[in-house]
């Protein structure tokens, strides 16, 4: 790694120019002692094992390779104990505020009446569910599983890029990546002091049992999947196994007398708590899309009567809308009387006339995103777009400004990555996962996604990105043997 050069970007293994990453000194030393051929061999071994284990995701747009492994890079991303404590506090604060927001908009709507957030932005949102108005949920928790996408800028400051509060995916790769590193790179991990991630399934099961109807002594939990053609089906299998609960599809469940039952070889068995990986629209054809073949007819009425728990709650999509995202710092101030611990990326809502004009005037300098898309689709990165792409984006903005937000291009931090040409910097982001029942627990680490194509900023797996293991170091001692101090 002697010729490695991150340029002007903040580097996750080396730190910034003014703030070297002292906590990763031993890891860097061990990596420097390995030749590139050995790293490349271990990397190939890891990818071969991923394939053999069936750790895959589906890509519908690629006719030639429907089922693909998520590319894995063996050089880890390392986070100090002090820095993680900051992120953990910020994520917990954000989840708390979003749950307060969801309870409010489905009850008294004080934040709308006080003009903190435009009422039409919420009530006219396609993810707002009138069926949830007045419905109480256990512990007032709507978002039980949250994935918060974080990026780090050139100054080393973490910022929230977006919230994922409907059906966030990717946590299976967090756990499997750790298992992979333990198999192919045990010498790098030895005596480092890395916080574990393999208790996620137990924590999720605990939360699912907490929110179950209180009159049930031993709740039956299931994971509801749309089926094997879903892009995250591997994760559904993985999480059901980790929790030790049945994996079911809509056809496996039935509602009788406003209670949910699972079909078994011994007859019907009551179901009390459901971790659903199905969007609202397909959950219940009686309540939402009547053409849905994926959901369970009548499940919404059972939910409304408190006979079954659903995670995440119906109607949480309002909270992870990209336009609503802009107001989360105001929510934190409104509900908690606190400043946001982790700031947002500066964002303009194009439904507002001045924001639209600014976006149009600076289109070649901004990133423009549709508010309802995910997976990196529909994004225009101004500085890297062609004249034709900019013209197309301009036309879409003018035709439907409410569907777009714009943000400055964030110079995402980089991390050393094994490529065919050597060890090179590649841009990364981070998706930590939080579980909330009565209280919130944040998985120490998260999914580090890496943009494997040179120069690209889009890290999504559907756009060719891969992943890395994320190491959160334990409290106390830096990797050079000294006590952890201010530099991290």
UniProtKB/TrEMBL annotation:
Pfam families: CP_ATPgrasp_2. Residues 76-451 form the Circularly permuted ATP-grasp type domain. Coiled coil: none annotated. Keywords: Plasmid. PANTHER family: BLR5612 PROTEIN (PTHR34595), SLL1039 PROTEIN (PTHR34595:SF7). This is Circularly permuted ATP-grasp type 2 domain-containing protein.
